[in-house]
């Protein structure tokens, strides 16, 4: 269904109740930017709950989801996600995000919105269809690429501190500039973000990470002081120290480059997070060595632990947490595999540990090369090509990605006369180690022969061997 037809139907329902209705917010903004979106927000001047009843009847909607306390309701219709809100004036208590809602007219509703580019409304009456209502010069800001609050920014941000993060998200997504007074108000009020729920913060943060060049948003987050409120571990990566002619690179800016590099390769959210966190353990492991200069030994292990804690706090899913921790923990491995003397066994171990995420790990490692010296970059890339070649050779032979034990638990129990228990796991591990070491090929018959040959040794410590006669 075309939006015009949809708007006409909705307008007719509103007219039946004698309510005014307008399209507002993101839809109008994106339409003027030449983008068609299926999420549409409406402002109803009248009782939105009554309008929900009328619309349900007129459009034969199966369900409408109502939030009477907030004067809003939502519905789906022909692939559109529709949200209706009472024209409202909100006031917020100082330490809470819960608004006290009062009925108001369209203009005061628009004034309580976050940015001028989001205060645009569109008339959908047949007489003035498509006319834009623009009381805060939102259209000009949209043309000039400016993020600015309609009212005094301090007021707009104290109504909902998440808007400070939204300002940066919009600037990053649209490649806009945040107007000076608006930005100064973010800097002055950044600490107030602490009253916002982590879910809302993470949602905006994800949108910033998913932009074309995430470093833009991340730098703004840092400069505004917001990053330090919700992600202090990242701001701690900043700074360069110099001692006895040695200096290390600024890990924060290096990290931003790595995130941009994976983004340029079309990375999904979890790979961008891995890039963001790959060096998070560096500040905690930084030491100065008289001979070698600055070292960060073990930063991948410390980083893995920190990543887990941070991602949990951000409420990411367990899948994402596991994936990111795996990549952070392994990000130095491929580089360590450069060199003729590296054994197939080391390569096999990496393939086994990285599993399905090996390609992403290699993308991250290549993105990690941020040297500005072309000869160095060339050498590093050649090194990775060499590692990749060896990985491919070993993989073709040993098929270790998605490793499945060639002799399964049932067969082990049957052949060894064992009941389920730790002994079975021990034998499985014995097989895996033998394959990784290259002592036996990754094949059923060979592995079975191998463990039968080592049967006595494997059973020597008693375990839970099944008693043959009762
Ligand atoms: N809004 C606001 N303050 C917020 C959130 C939203 O003033 N903290 C207003 C804005 O006018 C916004 C509208 O509510 O345009 C709809 O919000 P939302 O759907 O979150 O954002 P969109 O502008 O539609 O942008 P996007 O779809 O990219 O999130």
Radius of gyration: 30 Å
Stretches where pLDDT falls below 50 for ≥5 residues? Answer: 462-470
Q: What characteristic shape results from the CA principal axes?
A: globular
Number of helices: 25
Task: Please name the CATH topology of the largest domain.
Answer: Beta Polymerase, domain 2
CA(first)-CA(last) distance:
74 Å
Sheet with the most strands? 7 strands, mixed
Structural class: alpha+beta
Care to count the β-strands?
15
Q: How do you describe this structure in short?
A:
With 470 residues, the protein is α+β, with helices and mostly antiparallel strands.
Give a written overview of the molecule.
By secondary structure, the protein is an alpha+beta fold. The chain folds into four domains: 1-144, Beta Polymerase, domain 2 (2-Layer Sandwich), CATH 3.30.460.10; 145-230, Hydrophobic Seed Protein; 266-398, no CATH class; 409-458, no CATH class. It is 53% helix and 12% strand. It has 25 helices and 15 strands. The chain has helices at 3-16, 26-32, 48-58, 106-111, 138-144, 153-159, 162-174, 180-189, 198-209, 214-224, 226-230, 232-235, 251-264, 269-277, 282-285, 299-313, 318-330, 333-336, 344-354, 358-367, 374-398, 409-416, 422-437, 444-453, 455-459; strands at 20-24, 39-45, 65-67, 72-77, 80-86, 88-92, 99-103, 121-123, 132-133, 146-147, 177-178, 242-243, 246-247, 287-289, 293-295. The chain has a seven-stranded mixed beta sheet. α7 (162-174) runs parallel beside α9. The chain is globular and about 90 Å long. The relative contact order is 0.05. Mean pLDDT is 90; it is low at 462-470. Residues 25-26, 39, 41, 113-114, 118, 160, 162-163, 166 line the site of cytidine-5'-triphosphate.
């Amino acid at each position: 269904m075309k939006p015009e037809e949809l708007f006409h139907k909705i307008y007719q329902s509103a007219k039946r109740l004698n309510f005014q209705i307008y399209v507002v917010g993101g839809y109008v903004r994106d339409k003027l930017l030449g983008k068609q979106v299926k999420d549409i927000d409406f402002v109803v001047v009248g009782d939105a709950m009554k309008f929900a009843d009328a619309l349900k009847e007129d459009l034969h909607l199966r369900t409408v989801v109502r939030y009477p306390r907030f004067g809003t309701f939502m519905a789906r219709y022909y692939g559109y996600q529709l949200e209706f809100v009472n024209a409202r004036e909100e006031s917020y208590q100082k330490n809470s995000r819960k608004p006290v809602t009062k009925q108001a007219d369209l203009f005061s509703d628009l004034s309580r919105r976050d940015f001028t580019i989001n205060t645009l409304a569109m008339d959908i009456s047949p007489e003035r269809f498509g006319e834009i209502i623009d009381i805060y010069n939102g259209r000009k800001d949209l043309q000039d690429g400016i993020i600015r609050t309609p009212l005094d920014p301090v007021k707009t941000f104290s109504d909902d501190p998440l808007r400070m993060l939204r300002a940066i998200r919009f600037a990053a997504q649209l490649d806009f500039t945040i107007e000076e007074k608006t930005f100064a108000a973010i800097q002055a009020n950044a600490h107030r973000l602490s009253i916002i729920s982590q879910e809302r913060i993470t949602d905006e943060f994800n949108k910033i990470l998913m932009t074309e060049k995430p470093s833009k948003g991340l730098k703004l987050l840092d400069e505004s002081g917001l990053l330090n409120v919700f992600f202090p571990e990242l701001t701690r990566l900043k700074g360069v120290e110099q001692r006895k002619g040695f200096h290390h690179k600024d890990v924060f800016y290096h990290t931003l480059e790595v995130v941009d590099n994976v983004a340029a390769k079309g990375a999904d959210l979890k790979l961008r997070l891995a890039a963001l966190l790959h060096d998070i353990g560096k500040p905690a492991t930084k030491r100065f060595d008289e001979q070698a200069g600055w070292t960060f030994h073990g930063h991948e292990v410390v980083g893995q632990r920190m990543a887990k804690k941070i991602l949990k706090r951000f409420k990411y899913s367990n899948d994402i947490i596991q994936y990111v921790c795996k990549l952070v923990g392994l990000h130095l491995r491929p580089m360590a595999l450069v060199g003729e003397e590296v054994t197939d066994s080391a390569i096999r171990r990496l393939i086994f540990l990285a599993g399905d995420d090996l390609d992403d790990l290699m993308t991250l490692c290549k993105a990690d090369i941020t040297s500005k010296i072309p000869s160095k970059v060339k050498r590093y890339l050649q090194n990775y090509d060499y590692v990749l070649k060896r990985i491919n050779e070993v993989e073709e032979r040993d098929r270790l990605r998605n490793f499945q034990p060639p002799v399964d638990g049932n067969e082990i129990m049957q052949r060894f006369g064992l009941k389920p228990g730790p002994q079975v796991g021990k034998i499985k591990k014995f097989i895996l180690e033998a394959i990784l070491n290259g002592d036996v090929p990754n094949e059923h018959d060979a592995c079975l022969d191998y463990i039968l040959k080592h049967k006595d040794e494997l059973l020597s410590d008693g375990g839970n061997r099944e008693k043959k006669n009762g």
